[in-house]
Each structure stands twice: as C-alpha cells, then as structure tokens.
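Morning!

This is the sequence you dropped in the shared folder:
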Amino acid sequence: MVYVWGMTRDAGQKGDPPHTDIAASGWWRHLPGWLHPYLLLARIDRPIGWWLLLLPGWWIISAAGAYSAITLASTIWVMGLFLVGAITMRAAGCVINDMWDRRLDQRVARTAGRPLAAGTISMMQATLFIVCLGVIGLAVLVQLPLMAILTGFAALPLVVLYPLAKRVTWWPQAVLGLTFSWGVPLGWTAMRGTLPAGDEWLAIGLIYAGSVAWVFGYDTIYAVQDMADDRTVGVRSSALGLGQHLRRGVAVAYLLAVSLAGAGFWLLLGSGIWIAGGALAALHLGWQVMRLDGDDPAGALRLFKSNRDAGLLLTAGLLASQMVSATS
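The structure's back. Tokens below.
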C-alpha cells in the first residue's frame, strides 16, 4: 500500500484521481509505505523543483571555474555538493511552504491531497522532518569555505518568507526568484572562497538579477495552473496580476533574464563557446513564450518543466568554456 491523497491505495492500482499534482506511481512506491508521505511532502517524486533551484548555482560554478582556471575535477566536486544541497533544501522549502499553506491547500483541487493538507502527516512530524533535512543540508554546507557557509545561512529568511508573499503581493514569483537564484552568490563563494571584488560585483549582480527574472518568468507560467482556484481562495500570483498581458509579461521577464545574465557572463568570461549554450537557451525561452496559453493549464505545466532543458543548455556551454580554457 502507498499513502497518497490522505488515503491508502494499492501501489499497483492504475490511474490518478483528477485535479491533483500527486502521481499514483513512481520509483518511490517501491520504498516502505511509511516513507511515502514524507517523500510526497518533500516533492521527491517531482525533481523539476530541485533542478530549477540547482541550475543557477551550476551556472556560476562553471563560470567561476573558467574565470579562475580552477580544475574541472574541483568544479565537478562542488557541482555534486550543490546537487545534494539543492535536493535537500528544496525539500525543506516545500515542507515549510506546506506548513504555512495547509489550510489554503485544502481549498485548491490540485493541492488538497498533499500530506499536511490531507492530514497524512502532523505538524510535529513535519517539524521533525525539517530538522532532519537541516542536518543533511548543514553536512553539505560545512564542506564549503567559511564565506560560502555564511552566504548559505543568509538565504534562510527568504526561504521562510516566500510562502507569506502570496498573501500580500500580486508578485510572489519575484520573491521566489530572489530565493531560487541564491545559488549564484553561494556558488561564487563556494568556488572562490571570498565575496566578489571590484568589477566582479557587477558581473555577479547581473547574473543574479538575470536568474531572478528567469525564475519570475517560469513560475508565472507555473501559476497558470492555479488561476481559477487562486481567484476563489484569494491567493495572489503574477499570472493573475498580468491578466490578459500574461504572454507579454513572461516575454519581458525572459528578455531581461537573457540580457542581464548574458551581460554578466560576458563581463566574467568575454567571448567563448558559452555563448552557443546561452543562445540555445534563449531560443528555448522564446519557444516557451510562443506556446504559452493562459487557458491551457496542462500545457503550462509542460512549458514550466522544460526550463530544466533551457538551464542545462547554458550549463553545458559554460562547462565547455571551462574545458577549453583548461586546455589553452
């Protein structure tokens, strides 16, 4: 048996109930049943979240490796640490979000089956789970230089405050952008051991701002799924705020993302093969804008998930630049 939607069902049962973001099947269903609510609470069954949290960090780690002539082996090691950290901290963020939103989630069809909303997990169990995730995150963080540890702790207020933003502003996606883009300053300090100096501040600031715009754009697409329910329960989002200007708003966000991040990487690296990866990523974002339809929630979810591919294209270009710089 597996625990989902606040009830038990046979693991081999086919089909999902409609209007839920929890799948009935997956690799996790082969694990012990008591783990299932925690895996679902942490969204381990849906990796797109940690991918999107991870990618800005991977960008700057690769760029710092090329900029500072750091060995590829060291770059891969730090990227691996960030992978574990992203999975862990995204899980913690999901738990915190669901703790804040458990009453709202009960009123939204897509989220009503989440473990806290459905009562499958208690608030005390969720709190203990956060402590466990925090220990894992700390174990990763202490592998990094002291400045990176301090930079990592500086992001905690954003992690805690994001769930509140949707109650007070039409633009909670901007707060999420500030949070999900924190891998940029963290990745830089992890690779260099120090804060940026001189013109590096401008480059890192531009890349961070570009990442914030990217997150704003893709999370606005994600919010298309919930527009009807959000209107009913009073939750605010940029998708509702933009209204009939939805596609134009996402286009502006993506244009800012490409322009700002591109300028930052140019200041750090100059010309190079990374531009090819950036250009392919930009084309992918343009394709998303062309396909976006505010009346197609399922299509919006597919577009949202495709941002992993856009981010990996840029990552590949930046890693290729580091490999070229190491051989030149």
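Headline: The CA atoms of residues 37 and 312 lie 30 Å apart.

More detail when I'm at my desk.
O.
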